[in-house]
Automatic annotation (TrEMBL):
Signal peptide: none
NCBIfam families: cupin_WbuC (TIGR04366)
Domain Cupin fold metalloprotein WbuC cupin: 6-88
Pfam families hit by this protein: DUF6016
Protein name as catalogued: Cupin fold metalloprotein WbuC cupin domain-containing protein
Organism domain of life: Bacteria
Source organism of this protein record: Zoogloea ramigera
Length: 158
């Protein structure tokens, strides 16, 4: 019966896992396999985790995120990488999540330790196409990630 419930102990354990891995992010899948038609997951994220700007070209892959703990910033870009919108999301805040339609470049930045959110989008999992990555931003592990992350975070300072 305990597998039915998403409780504080699960969220605490997921946050601890995120703190202990180099990407500063940990997932707990609520779907059974990468081939599942709907992907739902809990994600713990810590400040310093880099999510490269990307889009989902599949017309069925809108992406929804709802923040459960902490603070997360969402950034929306045009096709050339110019920032179009930046909103802070937090439980009980003015914005608690987003629903990004397919084809829109976006990213997230963690603004507080212990941030957790639920993410949902259509499956099955597909390796992102080159055209789905924002070419103006470095890939994870490439030079320039620290600068890109600092620039994204600057949209939420002050």
């Amino acid at each position: 019966m305990s597998d039915f419930f998403l409780d504080a102990a699960l969220l605490d354990e997921l946050s601890a896992r995120a703190r202990d891995v180099p990407r500063l992010r940990a997932h707990h899948n609520l779907h059974d396999s990468p081939e599942a038609p709907a992907h739902r997951m809990l994600v713990a994220m810590e400040p310093g985790s880099y999510v490269r700007p990307h889009r989902h070209l599949d017309p069925n892959k809108a992406e929804t995120i709802i923040v459960l703990r902490g603070r997360l910033g969402v950034l929306v870009f045009d096709d050339e990488g110019r920032l179009q919108a930046a909103r802070e999301m937090a439980p009980g805040g003015a914005v608690i999540g987003y629903n990004i339609p397919p084809g829109v470049f976006h990213s997230i930045v963690c603004l507080a330790a212990g941030t957790l959110f639920i993410e949902a989008k259509a499956g099955p999992y597909a390796v992102p196409l080159d055209a789905e990555w924002g070419t103006w931003a470095p890939a994870e592990g490439e030079p320039g990630v620290a600068e890109a992350l600092a620039a994204m975070g600057a949209a939420f300072s002050g």
